[in-house]
TrEMBL record:
One of its GO terms (molecular function) is oxidoreductase activity. Signal peptide: none annotated. It comes from Urochloa decumbens. Its cofactor is L-ascorbate. Residues 191-299 form the Fe2OG dioxygenase domain. This is Fe2OG dioxygenase domain-containing protein. InterPro entries: DIOX_N, IPNS-like_FE2OG_OXY, IPNS-like_sf, Iron_ascorbate_oxido_reductase, Oxoglu/Fe-dep_dioxygenase_dom.
Amino acid sequence: MVVLAKGELAQIALPAAQPPTADVPAVDLSAPPGPAREAAARALVAACEENGFFRVTGHGVPAELARAAEAAAAVFFAWPQGEKEEAAPAVGYGSKRIGVSGDLGWIEYLLLGVTPAGAVPVTFASSSTLPCAAAAAGSSSSSTPASPLRGLLEEYTVAVRRMASAVLELMAEGLGLAGAGALAQLVAREDSDCMLRVNHYPARPAAAEGGGAPSLLTGFGEHTDPQIISVLRSNGTSGLEIALRGGEWAAVPPDGDAFFVNVGDTLQVLTNGRFRSVRHRVVVNSERSRVSMIFFGGPPLGERLAPLPELLGDGGRSRYREFTWAEFKNSGCRTRLAEDRLSPFEN
């Protein structure tokens, strides 16, 4: 349930539109060594260069696990509002406010940080990233009603994190990097700053008596993800849109069995701009609710980030200055969703 104050619905209303359908390339992570894997690596690199968005097959994440986690989240979101707010400390529950800079959406969500001890809820603070979240709030009692959901989300996170590492290993091969783990180790270390976000976009509200409801609402406003990559799965309801290279919006075909991967700002930096951090948004245009689970793969807070030397190209010019992930997080959380967070770090 999303409860908006007077006037807030108008803030997230969007004009009616019918964007074209995006052509989303597929990358097979299970391709065997040899020509098939080389072809998969080339396809992955091409997708990252074009729109920074692709889907993966052969990923190894059990379908039953993904469906169970999604179903458990849907049950939680169906609870009475008071019960969800009471359980908020255990699962990082929030609604309508995205970050701390005033962005709103027709959304409620769970936000968990990934730590060596498992997935723990996070709270908002100025040190957060987009989606804005601060450090873990600490583990809650296993006797809380939300703990079975927590357990499923933890198991799901482990599987998707493993898949994200496999994506980055294949990516390193496609880029010709010296070590296959050059990128994967950034999200696989114990101190890597990763998160899981579960978003629920309730069905579009019906028209009120004597008035009308907008045909489209902002679920999650346009933005890029600051991390290295994001891995997304949804329940097959439409709404996700990506900005193509020319700037026009395209609708991602709904697919309840697919995993989609976004290139994030940090990967754009590491590749010196060769890969494109994809701008995307979620539009609420359906009478069916949408549930999506997004794993954000980020590096350790103290990791120093700059274009990889192998990818500087002719002349060796770096488009970005060196910075730490903590520095980028602190800078990004002070911005609105749609702002360009990379420009302050350009040379």
